[in-house]
């Protein structure tokens, strides 16, 4: 595989963004371009296309790292399948990518993971956790300057969970499994997550571009604590709440957006255990449904963290959940 040709000025440093066409990846790409980076997309739909089920050796990644100064991996699957096994897409391919970065002297690598996987036993949790651990081990060994970001529930345009919760917020009743209704979340806006990723990379103005991937980002960012951060960061929004409270908050915003004032509270009907399991298994059989066994396991667990980490990375306050829907319009243009 040869490195893709670029149509943007060669003076801009390049970041390899894996999963650039996904929900989070698209927003990260916009934030990186605003920050002055040239984005080289690596996905099934990029040119050349990158198949993560076939990218399990460092040699596969080497051509894509030519002329790159940083790497962001935002690839994520909600469903495990024979065609796209999580063991390959979440674990083997990222491990190979991280090893290739270390071999090429490309130090800055950011991995987008998920809060709540530390002790989970789903395929999603196990595979994400394994890739996270590999990047952190390479960082601890001094071979990379890696960062693992584990965000809580992410809100934003194009997100499957966002579409699901917005649809539920419009209904006069709310029927969800009791563990999901009671689970505590600390939602964050996708534009905040994307901006945090951009700030974790070296300022483009301080990077010498060229064919070498090696970047002394510490020297380039002596006064920028965010760009010099390495290790694991759990990211969460400014307010913790139950899932039922979160959906009610979205419902209130939808009513205000429509000029009708706060909507009347929805009736809440906790689903029985047997129906919860049956609906999740049914979702497993529907490829385009955001509801499945993996999402049930994730949503039924608490996803909360220190609220100070995200604003520290952003250098500003994080968007409060009460402003999420207003933020959709504000950030619609990227």
Quick recap:
This protein is an alpha/beta fold.
Provide a count of the helices.
13
CATH superfamily of the domain at 14-154 and 188-235 and 304-319: NAD(P)-binding Rossmann-like Domain
Rg: 20 Å
Count all strands and give the number. 12
User: How large is the share of residues in beta strands?
Assistant: 5-15%
Provide the CATH topology of the domain at 14-154 and 188-235 and 304-319: Rossmann fold
Order of helices and strands: EHEHEHEHEEHEHEEHHEEHEHHHH
Reported for the largest beta sheet, the result is:
6 strands, parallel
CATH class of the domain at 14-154 and 188-235 and 304-319: Alpha Beta
Mean pLDDT: 87
**Strand order, sheet with most strands:** 2-1-3-4-5-10
In the CATH classification, which architecture of the domain at 14-154 and 188-235 and 304-319 applies? 3-Layer(aba) Sandwich
Structural class: alpha/beta
Low-confidence stretches: 5-9, 211-223
Distance between the termini: 31 Å
Fraction of residues in helix: 25-40%
């Amino acid at each position: 595989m040869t490195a893709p040709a670029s149509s943007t000025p060669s003076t801009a440093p390049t970041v390899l963004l894996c999963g650039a066409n996904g929900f989070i990846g698209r927003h990260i790409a916009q934030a990186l371009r605003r920050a002055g980076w040239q984005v080289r997309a690596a996905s099934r739909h990029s040119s050349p296309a990158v198949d993560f089920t076939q990218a399990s050796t460092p040699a596969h990644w080497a051509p894509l790292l030519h002329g790159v100064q940083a790497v962001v991996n935002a690839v994520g699957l909600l469903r495990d399948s024979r065609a796209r096994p999580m063991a390959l897409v979440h674990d083997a391919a990222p491990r190979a990518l991280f090893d290739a970065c270390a071999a090429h002297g490309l130090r800055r690598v950011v991995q987008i993971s998920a809060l709540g996987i530390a002790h989970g036993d789903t395929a999603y949790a196990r595979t994400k956790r394994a890739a996270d651990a590999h990047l952190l081990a390479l960082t601890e060994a001094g071979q990379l300057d890696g960062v693992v970001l584990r965000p809580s529930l992410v809100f934003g345009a194009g997100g499957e969970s966002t579409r699901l919760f917005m649809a539920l917020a419009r209904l006069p009743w709310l029927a969800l499994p009791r563990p999901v209704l009671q689970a505590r979340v600390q939602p964050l806006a996708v534009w905040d997550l994307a901006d945090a990723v951009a700030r974790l990379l070296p300022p483009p103005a301080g990077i010498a571009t060229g064919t070498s991937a090696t970047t002394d980002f510490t020297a380039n960012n002596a006064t920028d604590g965010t760009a010099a951060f390495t290790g694991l960061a759990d990211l969460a929004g400014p307010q913790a709440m139950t899932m039922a409270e979160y959906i009610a908050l979205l419902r209130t915003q939808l009513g205000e957006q429509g000029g009708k004032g706060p909507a009347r509270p929805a009736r809440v009907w906790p689903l029985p255990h047997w129906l919860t399991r049956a609906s999740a298994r049914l979702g497993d059989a529907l490829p385009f449904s955001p509801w499945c066994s993996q999402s049930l396991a994730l949503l039924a667990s608490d996803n909360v963290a220190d609220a100070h980490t995200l604003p520290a990375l952003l250098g500003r306050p994080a968007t409060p959940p009460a402003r999420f829907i207003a933020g959709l319009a504000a950030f619609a243009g990227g």
